[in-house]
Amino acid sequence: MKKKKEFGKEVLLLDPEKEAGRICARIREIMLTRVKRHGVVVGLSGGIDSSVTAALAARALGRERVVGLEMPERHSAQETLTLSGMVAASLGIETVVAEISGMLEAVGCYGKYDEAVRTVVPGYGEGWKSKIVISNNMEHPGFTLFHLVAQDAGGATSTVRLPFKPYMEIVAATNFKQRIRKMLEYYHADRLNFAVAGTPNRLEYDQGFFVKLGDGAADIKPIAHLYKSQVYQLAEYLGIPEEIRKRRPTTDTYSLSQGQDEFYFSLPYEQMDLCLFAKNNNVPAQSVAAAVGLEPEQVRMVFRDIEVKRSSTRYLHLPPLLVEDIAWE
Amino acid sequence: MSLQEDIRSFIIENFLFGDAGGLNNDSSFIKEGIVDSTGILQLVAFIQEQYLVGVADEELIPENLDSVSKVAAFVEGKKRLALEGGAATGEAT
């Protein structure tokens, strides 16, 4: 009798040439029949998702119909601009660089953030850095906890659990970054009669890891159906520079360097991808455990966390809701 | 107002727009979709400020906070501990 194939990362393997062709055909169709704009603006972060999105758009529409926006601010990693510039150069697309710290300062982003942090770390100020990390739900199986990690000018770090008010204020102030960027993307899209391409991968889209009307806003999201590991496969096929493909996913949002798995996902993307795939395809936790190096009970906890995040971020996906339906299409 | 009524009233006012609907004191906040993880933070802030009890990281679990009855029992236990001279665990942030 043929032995049943074990569950493993092979389930996420795709034919990159075929998939790139399929996505490009859909981008053209969507732009022609639904969006009806003549090109796209893509915010380039120097990360894998925006690089692949820009590459696919350039392939689908022509490189002259894609504009890359590079929008660093004072807390962006030093390599951000180098990497986003590198991918734009490799694709041959036009770029616009807009340093957004001044705008963020003007809306009070930094001031409100610092003020909220000082309610839990009173000495926080010039020369300090910080980030938010979530509790690891393997180690803490209860409700999600949010901690602030603060580093003083001398490099000493302290960690404090964030109470409700400062947590909400810190997140709200930080969301200005994604919303200012999106505002600029739409400015350039409007002046060029282009649309805006969003860059979420499937993990981010499914789990609500985006800011509503910030990075969540877009006219087309060409890679939202792809697991992160699949985005990397496409990146290699599309010739995205190795420096970008080797970089670990980062939020590049807080002044202290922060991995996406520290802030939002309970596991590194390779394991999250497999758990999400398994959940979506009814693969039992028992079969997933060995593939992701966890105990079955831990996989069940990840499954539950996926459900909780889906439920708590459901509203982020919703359009404005009306009291009664209005027929318009 | 009893502790349980006090907590129930906080939940109704803050998470249900004042309409108790079918809220049972044993209804699971999470399963019923009444309170999400951010709401739990809000609830914790309320019990810390209202009853001056600390809540440690390891106490932030559904067994302590996932229904009106559970929250009331948890707070009751913390207050009793404090009265008996045992320090309430966790930092009162």
Structure description:
The complex is a heterodimer of chains A (329) and B (93). Chain A is α/β, with parallel strands linked by helices and 329 residues long. Chain A folds into two domains: 187 residues, HUPs (Rossmann fold, 3-Layer(aba) Sandwich); 48 residues. In chain A, the strands form two sheets. Chain A has a four-stranded parallel sheet with strand order 3-2-1-7, with helices on both faces. A three-stranded antiparallel sheet of chain A has the order 4-5-6, with no helix packed on it. In chain A, helix 3 links the parallel strand 2 and strand 3. In chain A, helix 1 crosses helix 2. The relative contact order of chain A is 0.15. The mean pLDDT of chain A is 93. By secondary structure, chain B is mainly α. Chain B has a single domain, classed as Orthogonal Bundle (Non-ribosomal Peptide Synthetase Peptidyl Carrier Protein, Chain A), CATH 1.10.1200. In chain B, helix 1 crosses helix 2 and helix 1 crosses helix 4. The longest helix of chain B is centred in the last third of the chain and has 16 residues. Chain B starts with a helix and ends in a 10-residue tail after the last helix. The relative contact order of chain B is 0.17. Chains A and B meet through helix 6 and helix 13 of A and helix 2 of B.
Write a concise synopsis of the structure shown.
The complex is a heterodimer of chains A (329) and B (93). Chain A is an alpha/beta fold.
Summarize the helices and strands and which ones pair or pack.
The complex is a heterodimer of chains A (329) and B (93).
Chain A lengths: L15 H20 L4 E5 L3 H14 L4 E5 L8 H13 L2 E4 L3 H7 L1 H10 L10 E6 L11 E6 L5 E5 L2 H29 L2 E3 L4 H6 L20 H11 L3 H5 L13 H4 L5 H12 L4 H8 L3 H17 L1 H4 L12
Parallel strand pairs in A: 1-2, 1-7, 2-3
Antiparallel strand pairs in A: 4-5, 5-6
Helix pairs in contact in A: 1-2, 1-8, 2-3, 2-8, 5-6, 11-12, 11-13, 12-13
Chain B lengths: L2 H13 L21 H15 L10 H4 L2 H16 L10
Helix pairs in contact in B: 1-2, 1-4
